[in-house]
Amino acid sequence: MRETATPLAAWGATAAVLAGALWMLIDVLWRGAPGLSMGFLLEAPRDAGRAGGVAPILLSTIWILAVALAAALPLGLATAIWLSESTLQRPRLQRAVRLSLDMLAGVPSIVFGLFGNAVFAVALGMGLSILSGGLTLACMALPIIIRTAEEGLRALPPELRLQAAALGLRRSRIVLGLLLPAALPALLAGTLLGIGRALAETAALIFTSGYVDRAPQSWLDSGRALSVHIYDLSMNVPGGEHNAYTAALVLMALIVAINAATQAAARHWRRALSWQDPAAGDR
Amino acid sequence: MRSSIFPTDLHMNGHSRLLRIQRASGALRVLRGLFAPMLLAPVIACGPAPAPPAADALQGRLGLTGSSTVAPLAAEIAKRFEAQHPEVRIDVQTGGSSRGIADARSGIADIGLVSRALVGTEQSDLQAHPIARDGIAMIVHASNPVPQLNADQVRALYRGQWRNWQQAGGPDLEVSVVNKAQGRSTLDLFLEHFGLQSREIRPAVVIGDNEQGIKTVAGNAGAIGYVSVGSAEYAAASGVPIRLLALDAIQASVDSVRQQRYPLARPLNLVTRGTPGGLAAAFIAYAQSPAVHDLVRGLYFVPLE
After folding, report:
1. Domains of chain A: residue spans and CATH
2. CATH code matching the domain that covers B135-258, chosen among 3.40.50.620, 3.40.190.10, 3.30.450.20, 3.40.980.10
3. What is the ipTM of this complex?
4. Are B75 and A280 in contact (CB < 8 Å)?
5. Assigned CATH for B60-133+266-303
6. Higher pLDDT among residues A279 and B185, named by residue
7. Which residues 6+ apart lie within 8 Å of A135 measured at CB?
8. Contact between residue B56 and residue B85 where contact means Cβ atoms under 8 Å apart
9. Residues from chain B contacting residue A216 (CB–CB below 8 Å)
10. What is the pTM of this model?
């Protein structure tokens, strides 16, 4: 009985997850694809987004994401390295940092939005802008990036560090030249998760990067992100459903494209780092 | 996961490993190279010289924040205003009517967007400039003879206490309640007006936009729904089998909403701290002018006289 029940339950759960994802994908494709055209990608929205396209919104989204990554990646990597590699071990402090990171990862996005609005937009005088939005998203993505990068670095075999040290390599060389590239898959996975969380964000961005749907001229301009546009079309604009679905399709395509590009880059780098033995059997 | 980062050739000699480490840091250089232009891009984008000044006297920036119901309309009006005055830039932000009030008070925004009348102390320091009205019509199928409902009857129907139209003086027909999806501004106005809680409502159908609500009611003889008054009147006039009910003995129509007689309606206001001047005054005057009535109607609101 149990012999068949367990695999059945496992298969059932897998099928349910797959069905859910497929359903969503097909629903968005079905309702969004009819409105998709080159014009939709290249034109500015008209008639409150019910006509025209999403060009300036796509541009704002990419800018916000670029600011978020430019801020979160260096900070995140540095923190991860400190947490896992630092010779100045301070277990208490590190435990406190880890705990606060895990708590930060669970904070609802609207709280980040209000925080970003109060700190970046108002206190630091950036206003509602690409910069405020990007930095707020960086705060949201940081815990994910740091924790996955740290786990990736910890999972590296200790022999690697010992051998490198035995060769007399400087600590910075070991970390930058050996450990970081070796942990690349984990770093990429964390970055992708962070990007995913950032691109899906609506609540945090309404209060930080804002609602203006014109193409940003500088990073101090307000710019509407795709997710905010989708939310507005489906909630506040009567008759906006069709373009909301098309915009959702564009957002999904963007995420898939970023995923594919990152995977391709990872493959390229992995090939360049030949000591990552291809016979190890991973993808 | 582990296998992918586990170097299998740990016994490789030191020399070749060193070489490979140098190649590895090459990958990091590529990363650095990727990010430098991203950081610079916005700075470069600031570069181009501004457009030559027009003969137009109006110039400057205007910030509007507030109600998510008013924001799409305000943004469309702002775009048309900007097209006429190239030296003007208007940024519209959302966040709710309370934020519109707060930001107009504190001066963070030049103009607040508020989808209700000002109340209490708001009236003493703020000025409301109505640009449109938002009205909701209760609609039934054209074959339903019930002429009107009062607020108590609407509550009874939507709470599921009345399940047959006979209880409202109609035919022997099961009631089918059509409700709006969560988060719609029309739903908010409906709930607030009748003092209903979202969880009290037992809907048979949940709809998204006005068009869908009209189709649903037109296809079901026992249905009752609510949609914006402009779209309901337009549909009924163009032959869709729906009827707009009178509420508290006042017929739902664009006219009765405009004349502020129909109860299930609210004003859409631009709000300023004290009397607006210069650019803000010009924009408010434009937003209240007939030049934007097509935009008001386009979002299913009722233009003012």
Report:
1. 58-225 (1.10.3720.10)
2. 3.40.190.10
3. 0.83
4. no
5. 3.40.190.10
6. B185
7. A67, A68, A71, A116, A120, A126, A208
8. yes
9. 45
10. 0.79
